[in-house]
Write a structure and sequence with these properties.
This protein is of the alpha/beta class. Helices cover 39% and strands 16% of the residues. The chain has two domains: 198 residues, Rossmann fold (3-Layer(aba) Sandwich); 136 residues, Response regulator (Rossmann fold). It has a six-stranded mixed beta sheet with strand order 1-3-2-4-5-6, with helices on both faces. A five-stranded parallel beta sheet has the order 8-7-9-10-11, with helices on both faces.
Length: 351
């Protein structure tokens, strides 16, 4: 079911959001809603941005599924209301699927969190942009860990999706340049148990992973069952997972929280920097500290979503980026003598 933020008006500009609210993989879409609402409130009350317009946001649940996200996006686009931009998804696989379609409707797509390297392919995704750091860039942090701890042998395991294959391949080349030995590269589709067993047989101690967090939980549970954990075993996961991801209940995981915690103990999570480390004021004259203070004191704040708080800042920012881009478009249309053309524009499908 769709939910909208903003007040409808004759001069309404509509953003269509794709949020992973349910399903598997990564389901942190709920944490996006409050910062989106905050950003819309700030933008619609700012006379400098889109004067005379009202910016609104409608979201659909992508379920972190390629098929569901494309179907629901197209259903919404065909419903009749004109949208001016597509925002999302938080799941890279959904962004890859929808961005190959949304541009055919002459729509720009902007993601707050998709980090797959393949999304940088401008020929394949001509109107897709994102503010998340591509995951292959974070591989440098993993290489620095290897240098810091003098790790010379490493194993990898990744989920059989293009997103994670590209990330793992990039790590392989970086590690090879470091003259490190890759003792095994394991790939799984759904059940990782046999691949985890092979890691143990190969005496893997340092294990680099690339997968969605539901599969990471499956890997950790399998590792407990085969005894691949302890003081000499180090797992390295993506930093965009929910905090304490190993404790999230999952139907196909039959390990206890205590068992999962045993395996996860000592693991590293590598990620990009989520917030500006400097207390600089942005376009809305807020520092990071002031923004977070507003967020945590907002009546809509939900402590249950704290595990996904890493996306909060980017979720606020991507609404501002959308508004600023539309504002630039309106300025250019006005310069060309097409006043108010932006609000009348209906996105039509390219044949």
């Amino acid at each position: 079911m769709n939910s909208c933020y903003g007040n409808e008006a004759n001069t309404t500009l509509r953003l269509l959001g794709l949020l992973p609210m349910s399903g598997q993989g990564w389901v942190g879409g709920g944490a996006v809603l409050l910062p989106v609402k905050m950003a819309l409130r700030d933008i619609n009350n700012d006379p400098r941005i889109l004067p005379g317009y009202n910016l609104t946001y409608t979201y659909i649940d992508s379920m972190c599924s390629e098929g569901v996200s494309v179907y629901r996006m197209l259903r919404e686009l065909q419903a009749g209301l004109p949208y001016h931009m597509v925002l999302g998804d938080g799941c890279s696989t959904c962004s890859a699927a929808t961005a190959q379609v949304s541009y055919l409707w002459n729509l720009t797509q902007l993601s707050y969190g998709s980090s797959s390297p393949i999304l940088s392919d401008r020929k394949r995704f001509p109107k897709f942009f994102r503010i998340a750091t591509p995951d292959q860039m974070v591989n440098e942090a993993r290489i620095q860990l290897m240098r810091e701890f003098n790790w010379k042998k490493v194993a990898t395991i990744h989920q059989a999706l293009e997103f994670f294959s590209v990330v793992t391949d990039d790590f392989f080349h970086r590690a090879s340049d470091l003259n490190a030995t890759i003792i095994t590269q394991e790939i799984f589709v759904h059940d990782p148990k046999s691949r985890v067993e092979n890691l143990k047989k190969r005496d893997a101690r340092i294990i680099m992973t690339a997968m969605y967090e539901d599969r990471a939980r499956a890997v950790l549970c399998a590792a407990y069952k085969v005894g691949l954990y302890g003081a000499k075993i180090v797992w390295v996961f993506a930093g965009w997972f929910s905090s304490s991801f190993w404790l999230v209940k999952q139907n196909d995981i039959d390990c206890t929280p205590e068992q999962m915690a045993l395996v996860a103990d000592g693991a590293f999570l590598t990620s990009a920097v989520n917030y500006n480390p400097r207390e600089e004021r942005g376009i809305h004259e807020m520092t990071v500290s002031e923004f977070l203070d507003r967020y945590y004191n907002d009546p809509g704040y939900n402590t249950d979503l704290d595990m996904y708080k890493s996306v909060v800042g980017q979720s606020y920012d991507h609404i501002w980026i959308a508004a600023l881009s539309l504002n630039c478009t309106e300025t250019e249309l006005t310069r060309r003598g097409n006043r108010a053309m932006l609000s009348r524009t209906r996105r039509t499908r390219h044949n």
